[in-house]
User: Fold this.
Amino acid sequence: MAIHRSILHVDMDAFYVSVELLRHPELHGLPVVVGGTAGRGVVSAASYEARRYGVYSAMSSATARKLCPNAVFLPPDISHYIEVSRHLHTVFESFTPLVEQISVDEAFMDVSGATTLMGDAVSIAWQLRERVMAETKLSCSVGIAPNKFLAKLASEHAKPKATPDGIAPGHQVFEVKPGEELNFLLPLPVQALWGVGPATLKKLESIGVRRVSDLAQLDESVVCAAVGDAHGRHLYALSHGKDNRPVEPERIAKSIGHEETFAHDLTTHEELRVELVRLCDAVARRTREAGVAAGTLMLKLKFSSF
Assistant:
């Protein structure tokens, strides 16, 4: 008899903005954007009210202002968000020691061993949401599935949705039940698979693949011929709902970096040296805190033309 894992993917709702609204309750219900306001500022996060106007993270602040002139911009406070994230992690670990943090606002949890004590995975997910709200005053969406890939997709179905007509609260908790994986997965657009970006999508569309079901019906060799062997095998497995990766509580960081977009061009060696030393110091501090050593150093430089 197959043993099914119960994996949760917890994703905080508009995390940066939600944390800021705790400090600025007067802004509740308004389109709020966390991000830089200078000429090259970038949106770090947007409230669902701002998303109704088409404002999303990674968009330039200038574009966000055009789409939503009434948006209230707040500067990001990363150190505070990390502090809140640590508190969230403590809450997660009170349910299971198998917590794999993906970023400051999302994590995987394997609650397979907690069901005897706490009830089934859906019950645990609702308990988790209640605890997070009680201890942090923040809301989260939870996806449940037999593996990490499907749990991540499930959490997308659980999240609130912003449209020009309003904000739908979402399912809050959404489960992909064992045995129903393909019913959930196959109708989705092929972009739902991890690793399908614009370049891969173009290759897949050239062989008639637009939905996950299209890819799943092909022979694995056809997929590999279109996108390469390793990538093809990866996508073929995902299209059949297969993902055997465990939740890894002590996930080792593969890279540690620090970057910044400057309001004005840095044009002299001295200006560059000062900023480079500052950024290197930040990376070195985080490297020491993580207890790791670097094997490769990379410097990324972006010009005003991007």
Remarks:
- The longest helix spans residues 269-290.
- Residues 254-306 form one domain.
- The chain has 13 helices and ten strands.
